[in-house]
Amino acid sequence: MGKKRRRTDEETEFDLTRKAKEVKDDNEKRLIVILENAQLETVKVGKSFELLNPDEHAHILRKNGREIGNCRPDISHQCLLMLFDSPLNRAGLLQVYIHTENNVLIEINPQTRIPRTFKRFAGLMVQLLHKFSVRAAETSAKLMKVIKNPITDHLPAGCRKVATSFSAEKPIKPSELVPQDAPIAFIVGAMAHGQIKADYAEQTVAISNYPLSAALTCTKICSAFEDSWASIVFHKKNHSHTRICVFNQCSEIIGYISSILIYESHYPVQLYWQYSIKLKLIVLSIMVYHNSYRMFCKIIVQTLQQIGSIGSSYFYNKFHPPNINHKLNES
């Protein structure tokens, strides 16, 4: 057998990231962003197809009597970069759809890693628009796929649909539109200028006194939802970080305790294993239910008091000083 081909950076760019989480239930609360009137269109140049953009195809636009400002695929790229890098998406509370001017509806997997450069993004869009789906490099999971219209068939039942437009009568803070336990859809225009063509919108609001770009609109909406759902968006990350820190200290603590039990000659070596298993179970329970390292030390000391006073005082003097807490915070 020959050697396995090493993947290039362009191939790994479209691989699934392990940090994002999938949305499991349609009725769960989440933010749905629909990039409406996205200007994603392919054009044949020579023997290949390219994503139509004003930087490389200005002569084609002029030849067909089209305005350069009406062809801005980079706006969709900017919006996707902001949306998929947000903590809201990493927490599994974001779903994104794209509806192009040519009435093509695209669904994007929340775990998709959006290409950083516009050149790679353009190549990805050409593949999507011609093959109707893009799969991950290592798995068969679809990162992007073209789905059937209308968009309302893919939204949860009873989902509120809000369009954003500067022409709305009175500006509203995005935080005032955040529901507590229900999904909501925001429609953002992915074009340089003009009105959103979305007949399915139930309400049109303005989120600023000034005109905003599509990417900034997505930023303000996501920030409002992250602040309102902070207990879900940020709590999981901190809780996981605390578990990792405590787990890193676990092996060192168990090693000191084993030296106490064996070398102090108060207990047979055979008893070390059952005490070690008991302490490991306590560590796991602390990692699940507590975020405090002091609570961790306190319960370990109480356990050692049942073993013997010598081991308890030895452990307390060894691990209670602030340098251990400082070490944990640095990790």
Description:
This protein is α/β, with parallel strands linked by helices and 331 residues long. The protein has helices spanning 9-12, 58-63, 73-84, 87-90, 118-131, 214-228, 230-233, 235-263, 271-289, 293-307, 309-319, 322-330; strands at residues 31-38, 42-45, 48-51, 94-100, 105-108, 133-135, 142-147, 160-164, 184-189, 203-205. It has two domains: 30-235, SPOUT methyltransferase, trefoil knot domain (Alpha/beta knot), CATH 3.40.1280; 241-314. The protein is built from twelve helices and ten strands. The chain is globular, with a radius of gyration of 27 Å.
Q: What's the quick description here?
A:
It is built from twelve helices and ten strands. With 331 residues, it is α/β, with parallel strands linked by helices.
Biggest sheet features = 8 strands, mixed
Portion in strands: 15-25%
Helical proportion, percent range: 40-55%
The CATH class name of the largest domain reads Alpha Beta
Question: CATH superfamily of the largest domain, please?
Answer: SPOUT methyltransferase, trefoil knot domain
CATH topology of the largest domain: Alpha/beta knot
Low-pLDDT stretches are 9-19, 236-244, 321-331
In the sheet with the most strands, the strands line up as 6-7-5-4-1-9-8-10
Question: Based on helices, strands and strand pairing, what is the structural class?
Answer: alpha/beta
On the 0 to 100 scale, the average pLDDT is 77
Supply the number of structural domains.
2
What's the helix-strand series?
Answer: HEEEHHHEEHEEEEEHHHHHHH
At CATH level 2, the architecture of the largest domain is: 3-Layer(aba) Sandwich
Total beta strand runs = 10
**How many separate helices?**
12
- Tell me, briefly, the overall form: globular
Radius of gyration: 27 Å
